[in-house]
Design goal:
The protein has twelve helices and ten strands. The protein is an alpha/beta fold.
């Protein structure tokens, strides 16, 4: 297979070890940026999704939701094979309507292998991924949170609510893979976000063993602020409120990377570095710009 990745996207033999935490499109964007300067790259992915194709597969087969993992595979693939181009193909009719091919592949492989990690490893091999992907927990989890409407259960329900606080899990202390914990502890840089604050970012970072590793690591902990906040669980949240939520869930960060023009309504307890990281649509991160900014933060780290 012939690599079609940009030269700047290939893993660098002498590059730093980088870990990215989160889920959904946000984690995929961060991985796409980090692969441009990292020598060793690990994505740690939330498995709390209960909506759409992932929710249907989880409900029908009892498997971990595959959607966020699929997006990461697409972001890390270094070939333009038919398999890679098929991962995001979504059936638009019939009994498979709404399912992406990648979700079905991961589900089938996980059922045959008996665990999601084996399925991920096999697809990483087939797409020649520029890094590793590890689930945040060894079992599927259900997200629970308090809100202005009372106690809420499930990712989809939480995303649609406002006034979210006190995110937690069912089971309450889900085990994290040893590989995820070790990667966070040993990384030179850990990227938290961007993405939906509660249902992607915190849903990964506050897994107890991962949060402990974030406290223990000597690496640079970077919160990557959203370019534009979504209408869901972060509605009305600016950068100060995002940091408040991190602190309320006992998370520590060393620096915030925010888009140019970010307005903080009050002094911040953590240094904020602004950079031109937005794509032309101003709704998402440009991987090349984000990669340069993140590499620059690490270069300036003591």
């Amino acid at each position: 297979m012939t690599s079609t990745a940009d030269p700047d996207s290939e893993p660098l033999p002498t590059g730093p070890s980088v870990v990215a935490l989160g889920g959904g499109h946000g984690l995929a964007a961060t991985l796409g940026a980090a692969r441009r300067y990292a020598g060793d790259l690990t994505g740690i992915v939330s498995v709390g999704d209960d909506g759409g194709s992932s929710g249907r597969l989880r409900s029908e087969f009892g498997v971990a939701p595959p959607g966020d993992v699929r997006r990461c595979l697409s972001a890390l693939a270094t070939t333009d094979s038919l398999l890679v181009r098929s991962l995001e193909h979504r059936f638009d009719e019939g009994t498979l309507q709404g399912h992406p091919v990648g979700n079905l592949l991961l589900t089938g492989l996980a059922m045959v292998a008996g665990d999601l990690q084996s399925a991920i490893d096999e697809l990483c091999r087939l797409v020649d991924a520029a890094g590793r992907i590890v689930p945040a927990t060894e079992v599927p989890v259900t997200l629970i949170a308090d809100s202005d409407q009372g106690t809420l259960t499930g990712q989809v329900t939480i995303e649609r609510a406002t006034g979210i606080r006190n995110l937690r899990f069912d089971p309450p202390d889900p085990p994290a893979p040893a590989a995820a914990v070790a990667a966070v502890r040993s990384a030179e840089q850990i990227l938290i976000g961007p993405g939906s604050l509660f249902t992607s970012v915190l849903a990964t970072a506050i897994v107890p063993a991962i949060r402990d590793a974030l406290h223990e690591t000597g690496g640079q902990r970077v919160f990557v602020a959203n370019v534009a906040n979504e209408k869901g669980d972060a509605r009305g949240f600016g950068l100060p409120e995002h940091l408040d939520a991190l602190l309320a869930h006992d998370l520590k960060v060393d620096v915030v990377l925010a888009p140019v023009g970010t307005v903080a309504t009050r002094p911040m307890a953590v240094p904020v570095v602004e950079a031109e990281v937005a794509s032309d649509d101003r709704w998402s991160h440009d991987p090349a710009k984000l990669g340069r900014a993140l590499a620059g933060l690490l270069a300036d780290w003591p």
